[in-house]
Amino acid sequence: MKIGILTSGGDCPGLNAVIRGAVLKGSRKYGIEFVGIRDGWRGLVDADFFPLQRADVKGLSKVGGTILGTSRTNPYEGDRGGAENIKKTMYGHKLDGIIAIGGEGTLAAANRLWNDGVPVLGVPKTIDNDLQATDYSFGFDTAVNIATEAMDRLRTTGDSHQRCMVAEVMGRHVGWIALHSGMAAGAHIICIPEVPLSIEEICEQVESASERGRAPLVVVAEGFKLKGQEEAYSDKGLDAFNRPRLGGIGEVLAPLIEERTGIETRSTVLGHIQRGGSPSAFDRVLATRLGLHAADAIVDGAWGQMVAMKGTEIERVTFEEALGELHEVPLSRYEEASALFG
Amino acid sequence: MKIGILTSGGDCPGLNAVIRGAVLKGSRKYGIEFVGIRDGWRGLVDADFFPLQRADVKGLSKVGGTILGTSRTNPYEGDRGGAENIKKTMYGHKLDGIIAIGGEGTLAAANRLWNDGVPVLGVPKTIDNDLQATDYSFGFDTAVNIATEAMDRLRTTGDSHQRCMVAEVMGRHVGWIALHSGMAAGAHIICIPEVPLSIEEICEQVESASERGRAPLVVVAEGFKLKGQEEAYSDKGLDAFNRPRLGGIGEVLAPLIEERTGIETRSTVLGHIQRGGSPSAFDRVLATRLGLHAADAIVDGAWGQMVAMKGTEIERVTFEEALGELHEVPLSRYEEASALFG
Amino acid sequence: MKIGILTSGGDCPGLNAVIRGAVLKGSRKYGIEFVGIRDGWRGLVDADFFPLQRADVKGLSKVGGTILGTSRTNPYEGDRGGAENIKKTMYGHKLDGIIAIGGEGTLAAANRLWNDGVPVLGVPKTIDNDLQATDYSFGFDTAVNIATEAMDRLRTTGDSHQRCMVAEVMGRHVGWIALHSGMAAGAHIICIPEVPLSIEEICEQVESASERGRAPLVVVAEGFKLKGQEEAYSDKGLDAFNRPRLGGIGEVLAPLIEERTGIETRSTVLGHIQRGGSPSAFDRVLATRLGLHAADAIVDGAWGQMVAMKGTEIERVTFEEALGELHEVPLSRYEEASALFG
Amino acid sequence: MKIGILTSGGDCPGLNAVIRGAVLKGSRKYGIEFVGIRDGWRGLVDADFFPLQRADVKGLSKVGGTILGTSRTNPYEGDRGGAENIKKTMYGHKLDGIIAIGGEGTLAAANRLWNDGVPVLGVPKTIDNDLQATDYSFGFDTAVNIATEAMDRLRTTGDSHQRCMVAEVMGRHVGWIALHSGMAAGAHIICIPEVPLSIEEICEQVESASERGRAPLVVVAEGFKLKGQEEAYSDKGLDAFNRPRLGGIGEVLAPLIEERTGIETRSTVLGHIQRGGSPSAFDRVLATRLGLHAADAIVDGAWGQMVAMKGTEIERVTFEEALGELHEVPLSRYEEASALFG
């Protein structure tokens, strides 16, 4: 049996641990031969393969990024794309199936390929934790740890200067990183895409914290939009001073907060450091387990499915189930956290 | 309503986050008045109380240890111990109930008190993750992160010297910390109390790793016992050279491995650093949520119960349910990990 | 003897360790009574003092920020400012002298006060390491560690996506943080205020790294200016697309690099996380030693001087000596590092 | 020109950064051809060489350990050892010289070889910081950071249980790691080989800290000996209970302290984690600079010398100068720190 592995979409701490887990178990227990596919679907379309053996995955559980490279290519695009071409390529290289590690876009492409007859197994990857079919996805815990540690640092500088600190974290569509890092760091208000707030509501918490002698900490997911101003703050919109907007929502909020509360306010965009570097132990264990179970799933012929974490177990779900709605922060979780505000 | 909070047993990162969560929500949403009870059950027996207000818990989510102090006192011991005395003390101080944060011993005492008419609510605390009634307990993730980071360091020194490194981690009765940190760090063999192994089985993995050019990493939980030698390696037993044993199992294994394999072997006992310091983000969130839900449970009069994590939710279980068997590593999880060995 | 302590200017990891060192030694060995002065010179002008005793400084060596608060107030401004008013305030509160912990602006003010008859002792604080009179200043090592760790993370995401990563670090006038963190993280080009480079020179290194299969890492100090375009990129200037500039130099460089090299380029501004949080061990030791020596200097009546690190020793220098030129990166150090480029 | 590089003695964070610095500058600026010598002097004696090119050193500045391997072999031992054999081997492989990275033993061997006509350049490596000829050596800062972070963790568990914590750190002959980590972590007493203390003196500080409500932290270098009992606690001596001693001095002190003060006391031996893992930024910069300057020194024909850090500069010293006395902690530095005790 010969299986290709690819990683697709934004990188995420734990990708290498999945690869290592699948290759170690697959090659040794089941005698599977693995090939690495370079740069996501692009490498599959271009037949850009290389042998992936035990020695190639040694020491990888702690290594960030992906040794396979990644891209955002769609396997149906281009002259050589599409299920028929891919099936020919796979036939030519004697590939019996593909493990595709990726997020929603990747899994949607995987599902389409599977429906078109390409044997694909999915492994969920989303640093934002936005997939319904898995309790947690690897990379998320690492991102939350990095964001939390950064906020711990921001707090000391905020306290010394009696400043309000705004920390912008990842999360275009869902607020999980903001919710968890904000709870962990003791934020005074958490702004997530699922719960629009007005600038007045935000400033109320800022002032309340300030009155208690605290340096206010505002955590905001990049996809948060101010209540009633969703259009004005769109990606192509204007900033608070009617200039074409370059920065993120954190840079929108900071001057508004300062203007209304009179409290000196600074914004920090955590950016790409949230998705790089060595994974946390939690993510290493989760990613390794997903890789191990992917090897099992291949032997079981569980194509068209995805391995996923439920409670403390790894289970299988069909792509159909996996690709439902976005895993948003439920209102109950936001309300739970809001008991810590104000 | 007036509620006392105590922390009992070995300390654990996240205790302060529970206290903060309960006090913030309880005092502000429900108007509960909190008192801190010093040093676990001892403070309850001795009426060693102090007011615990919002300002006292500020900034605590990231602080390791417990501001309440802790001890291993049994509330039924001593002249002033026992349910009747405690009820009188509580009546005298107008305490309507107790939140007891602790592990199995603490919860057993809490259950006995509850059966004797003392209103107690439990919050599970076990760095070893050995309670059945909760998927994860706070402190565990922090300990696994610390152990993993230490092993990452041990590996580089092992690689440079072509040495076998033995890392002894916490876990007297269950092997969760060893299992998770060992998987995360890429151990070549993991030794846990639930799965006795012979020295031959261990050395086989050590030699196999060495033959592949790796510096072998052996992770061992403190409660691991060599197969067939459970007596010889008991706490009062002799060491590998028939001397009275002072060190832990790591110091037993290292010379045995070196003797049999001829590979230079060094042992490191991670010890108390695993339970100290700032909690990981995961543990801060979990502990904070347990504290928030403890406040809800009190208002609901859910005495004799414990808040616990199930999947991604916080639920309530009775003490009876919580105090069943130890949450051991199931064989399936050990076998899952063992695909990474040899 | 009664001494006031103040911290002034931007906060910096290690401020609390200085305070602790001075108070512990001063109060116990020399019987000095200390008062804390709130928010820098503002607190001195406003007589905003509070007692500072041994118990107040416990555990402070590892705590970021400053328990005294800080501000950028000039002691000569305002109705109540000026040397004569300050001398009256000090006389009224029986203050025999002031320890002023701060950077160049603070030390210049301290020097003026000293020349006007106010007994002031200086402790150098500059996260940018821009003071000539001290080999290293506390806070710098912590900032370099944080920046380096962030770049380690950026590299893995750069490698996975074959992107060029631009990291903007602190350093308005000098490039020490960029130089050290860039060397530590293996940057392919380091851009500092002291050494103007053209965009062509930068892109040459980016392309060279890319051709060798590396994801290029560009480290840029916030005060770097492109050769020949110092005006265009001034603080009030236009960005690369002739829009009013909001972001820093990192956001200027990234699109220029992407445009010229065709390599996808992302910019990250590390910002305030570089100056917050717990100090590194190096900074704790340095800051503690400066505090200890400040206590000695007071007893010796060494007013008008500053304690400073020379080699491995703490010495005293006069304010005059301390306030010479900025401690820039010498060309020899830049050339030394440039052997690692291209 | 063809140069061999070897690393010898105990491993140390930063070794790889030295190798990278030397190879990058040497090969590109000076056209030197490098070969790696495996496992220290052993590889030189056995002619165990491999090509070391630019691509082999990429990304190494942050990697702990040594890619060359290390051993404690003496180049004068064995049939194939000795200067004449080594010169023949070097002649046969056209090696023009050797860069030897190591501590006192390595440098002494290097000196002897140099006196016997073998061109050797030294780079100092001592995690203990025990060489007179260099202000700081790489690895030391990393070790101090690791020890300090571990002590920060020990303190929270000590505080929660009102325990005395004893932390044993590296330092057989000199107390630099103990001194710096103890100052950084706020130890209540620091025990170093240079300053014998009686158990009474130690307990006095422990009790004083305890009386002030602190959990006492005792930091002890592994080479510390109790005053007047130097023989009894020798390496082959007996422990506090007259049993053959297995553990280190930390395990000797803990029961003595507990017995005399009545304060529960726990000992932790930090062990090998202090020398493994990724170097701190300080050590990466220092090690890289030493490597860069080693390349310069070779071109200058500065054989029989060692590159060393003096203040902020890298200089050259002869082996004779480098091999004088051990760089002990001077009494003045111990007294400086002792102002923080009791």
TrEMBL record, chains A, B, C, D:
<keyword id="KW-0808">Transferase</keyword>
<keyword id="KW-0418">Kinase</keyword>
<keyword id="KW-0067">ATP-binding</keyword>
<comment type="similarity">
    <text>Belongs to the phosphofructokinase type A (PFKA) family. Mixed-substrate PFK group III subfamily.</text>
</comment>
<feature type="binding site">
    <location>
        <begin position="103"/>
        <end position="106"/>
    </location>
    <ligand>
        <name>ATP</name>
    </ligand>
</feature>
<feature type="binding site" description="in other chain">
    <location>
        <begin position="126"/>
        <end position="128"/>
    </location>
    <ligand>
        <name>substrate</name>
    </ligand>
</feature>
<dbReference type="InterPro" id="IPR012829">
    <property type="entry name" value="Phosphofructokinase_III"/>
</dbReference>
<comment type="subunit">
    <text>Homodimer or homotetramer.</text>
</comment>
<keyword id="KW-0324">Glycolysis</keyword>
<feature type="active site" description="Proton acceptor">
    <location>
        <position position="128"/>
    </location>
</feature>
<dbReference type="InterPro" id="IPR035966">
    <property type="entry name" value="PKF_sf"/>
</dbReference>
<dbReference type="GO" id="GO:0005945">
    <property type="term" value="C:6-phosphofructokinase complex"/>
</dbReference>
<dbReference type="InterPro" id="IPR022953">
    <property type="entry name" value="ATP_PFK"/>
</dbReference>
<dbReference type="GO" id="GO:0061621">
    <property type="term" value="P:canonical glycolysis"/>
</dbReference>
<feature type="binding site" description="in other chain">
    <location>
        <begin position="170"/>
        <end position="172"/>
    </location>
    <ligand>
        <name>substrate</name>
    </ligand>
</feature>
<dbReference type="GO" id="GO:0006002">
    <property type="term" value="P:fructose 6-phosphate metabolic process"/>
</dbReference>
<feature type="binding site">
    <location>
        <position position="163"/>
    </location>
    <ligand>
        <name>substrate</name>
    </ligand>
</feature>
<dbReference type="GO" id="GO:0042802">
    <property type="term" value="F:identical protein binding"/>
</dbReference>
<feature type="binding site">
    <location>
        <position position="266"/>
    </location>
    <ligand>
        <name>substrate</name>
    </ligand>
</feature>
<dbReference type="GO" id="GO:0047334">
    <property type="term" value="F:diphosphate-fructose-6-phosphate 1-phosphotransferase activity"/>
</dbReference>
<comment type="function">
    <text>Catalyzes the phosphorylation of D-fructose 6-phosphate to fructose 1,6-bisphosphate by ATP, the first committing step of glycolysis.</text>
</comment>
<dbReference type="GO" id="GO:0030388">
    <property type="term" value="P:fructose 1,6-bisphosphate metabolic process"/>
</dbReference>
<feature type="binding site" description="in other chain">
    <location>
        <position position="222"/>
    </location>
    <ligand>
        <name>substrate</name>
    </ligand>
</feature>
<dbReference type="GO" id="GO:0005524">
    <property type="term" value="F:ATP binding"/>
</dbReference>
<comment type="pathway">
    <text>Carbohydrate degradation; glycolysis; D-glyceraldehyde 3-phosphate and glycerone phosphate from D-glucose: step 3/4.</text>
</comment>
<dbReference type="GO" id="GO:0016208">
    <property type="term" value="F:AMP binding"/>
</dbReference>
<feature type="binding site">
    <location>
        <position position="10"/>
    </location>
    <ligand>
        <name>ATP</name>
    </ligand>
</feature>
<dbReference type="Pfam" id="PF00365">
    <property type="entry name" value="PFK"/>
</dbReference>
<keyword id="KW-0460">Magnesium</keyword>
<dbReference type="GO" id="GO:0048029">
    <property type="term" value="F:monosaccharide binding"/>
</dbReference>
<dbReference type="GO" id="GO:0046872">
    <property type="term" value="F:metal ion binding"/>
</dbReference>
<feature type="binding site" description="in other chain">
    <location>
        <begin position="272"/>
        <end position="275"/>
    </location>
    <ligand>
        <name>substrate</name>
    </ligand>
</feature>
<dbReference type="GO" id="GO:0003872">
    <property type="term" value="F:6-phosphofructokinase activity"/>
</dbReference>
<feature type="site" description="Important for substrate specificity; cannot use PPi as phosphoryl donor">
    <location>
        <position position="105"/>
    </location>
</feature>
<dbReference type="InterPro" id="IPR000023">
    <property type="entry name" value="Phosphofructokinase_dom"/>
</dbReference>
<keyword id="KW-0547">Nucleotide-binding</keyword>
<dbReference type="GO" id="GO:0070095">
    <property type="term" value="F:fructose-6-phosphate binding"/>
</dbReference>
<feature type="domain" description="Phosphofructokinase">
    <location>
        <begin position="2"/>
        <end position="298"/>
    </location>
</feature>
<feature type="binding site">
    <location>
        <position position="104"/>
    </location>
    <ligand>
        <name>Mg(2+)</name>
    </ligand>
</feature>
<dbReference type="InterPro" id="IPR012003">
    <property type="entry name" value="ATP_PFK_prok-type"/>
</dbReference>
<feature type="binding site">
    <location>
        <begin position="72"/>
        <end position="73"/>
    </location>
    <ligand>
        <name>ATP</name>
    </ligand>
</feature>
<dbReference type="InterPro" id="IPR015912">
    <property type="entry name" value="Phosphofructokinase_CS"/>
</dbReference>
